[in-house]
Design brief:
Low-confidence stretches: 369-376
Largest sheet: 4 strands, parallel
Number of strands: 8
CATH architecture of one domain: Alpha Horseshoe
Shape: elongated
CATH topology of one domain: Serine Threonine Protein Phosphatase 5, Tetratricopeptide repeat
Order of helices and strands: HHHHHHHHHHHHEHEHEEHEHEEE
CATH superfamily of one domain: Tetratricopeptide repeat domain
Distance between the termini: 77 Å
Mean pLDDT: 92
Oligomer: single chain
Structural class: alpha/beta
């Protein structure tokens, strides 16, 4: 039975009302019904596409948004929403085309220019993307998405000063943003600037993630009436990263170390397991916070942890390997060890190469110096 114009008008009013109240689930079928009757109604197509975007149904949103962009060629929002949908679907070339149309309708719009940068970056056209972010920032020098995105590109090409300047500007507007503080901290630490980087690096502990946290007060360097627990933050305490952090960082403090069975067999000091009761402990600190809490220097960290069987005096072949817990164990035992660092090494190594202060028998070999064929 055909729908009258009056019924269509009522349908449109109800759909609009539901959209206004955020009821996208209720509005979507009404708009779909309206579009089925009026397939060339640009505004209805646009609203249907937006409702599906809000519902996370991006593949279904693509077709009505594409048609809306066609039937509403002078409406900026129609072009932008179509481009945004294409971006989510990974169709970056088409997204760039839609954004170029939007830019012609609204030149010098920083949001459109930023989104062009995103599309260009996704297509691997990083120089053009950097220029696009710069153009957006020339209009709005505090545009947060462009500051953050350009900082990543600048850091990737080694311009850490420019990246740091963008992060500093972003933090002017959002000084309590833990993600931004952590990014700035990691950037500074990779340059060997522990004095400024370590406080920002503590922002990682404010983020909701899968980081392990024992049910104890967090130690902030104060005197304690009870034992201190130090622990790796990784959920898998027997994984390589947790073992490596334990060997590298469980030093310079009178504490009980939380670790797995294998490392407990090597470490001479007191240890506990993850499933042991934490009675008698006054507070806990993650191993990666010790450099900050104890004021370590990157050039002179405390001596490594004592081992039950260091192998002192015994003859050992030199060890060459990657930055794993086994090579750390060899270095901790006093065996001549060379660690081959990856292209982006852990910030704990700083900008070091050659002899390392972390272990007296350790040599660091950056990736550029890696032999073409070498064994572990």
């Amino acid at each position: 039975m055909p729908i009258t114009d009056l019924q269509l008008q009522a349908l449109a009013q109800e759909a609009t009302q539901r959209l206004t109240t955020g009821d996208f689930e209720g509005a979507e079928p009404l708009l779909a019904q309206l579009v089925a009757v009026r397939p060339n109604a640009g505004q209805a197509l646009h609203l249907l596409g937006q409702a599906r975007l809000k519902l996370g149904r991006f593949a279904e949103a693509r077709e009505p948004l594409e048609r809306a962009a066609k039937f509403l060629p002078k409406e900026v929002a129609a072009q932008i929403n179509y481009a945004g949908c294409l971006t989510v679907l990974g169709e970056h070339e088409a997204s760039l085309w839609a954004l170029d149309r939007a830019a012609k309708l609204k030149p010098d719009d920083p949001a459109i220019t930023h989104n062009r940068g995103r599309a260009l970056e996704a297509l691997g056209r990083v120089e053009e993307a950097e220029r696009a972010y710069g153009d957006a920032l020339a209009v709005d020098h505090r545009l947060m998405p462009s500051l953050i995105a350009r900082a990543g590109l600048l850091e990737a090409r080694g311009d850490w000063i420019g990246a740091l300047a963008d992060l500093d500007m972003a933090l002017v507007s959002r000084p309590d943003d833990a993600h931004l503080r952590l990014r700035r901290g990691e950037l500074l630490l990779r340059q060997g600037d522990w004095m400024r980087g370590l406080p920002d690096y503590e922002a990682r502990l404010e983020l909701p993630d899968e980081r392990y946290r024992p049910a104890l007060p967090r130690w902030r360097g104060e005197p304690l009436d009870g034992q201190l627990l130090v622990y790796p933050e990784q959920p898998d305490i027997d994984g390589d990263a947790a073992r490596r952090d334990t060997l590298m960082l469980a030093r310079g403090v009178d504490a009980v170390i939380q670790c797995g069975e294998i490392l407990a067999g090597w470490l001479a000091g007191p240890t506990v397991r993850r499933d042991d009761p934490l009675t008698g402990f006054a507070a806990a600190a993650p191993l990666r916070s010790l450099p900050y809490l104890l004021g370590w220097s990157a050039d002179a960290p405390p001596p490594p942890p004592a081992l039950r069987d260091p192998g002192a005096g015994a003859a050992h072949d030199p060890v060459v390997g990657d930055d794993t817990w086994e090579t750390h164990l060899a270095a901790c035992r006093g065996i001549a060890t060379t660690i081959r660092l990856p292209g982006t090494p852990d910030w704990l190594w700083g900008r070091q190469e050659g002899a390392s202060p972390w272990y007296r028998s350790l040599t660091l070999l950056p990736e550029r110096g890696r032999p073409a064929h070498s064994g572990s």
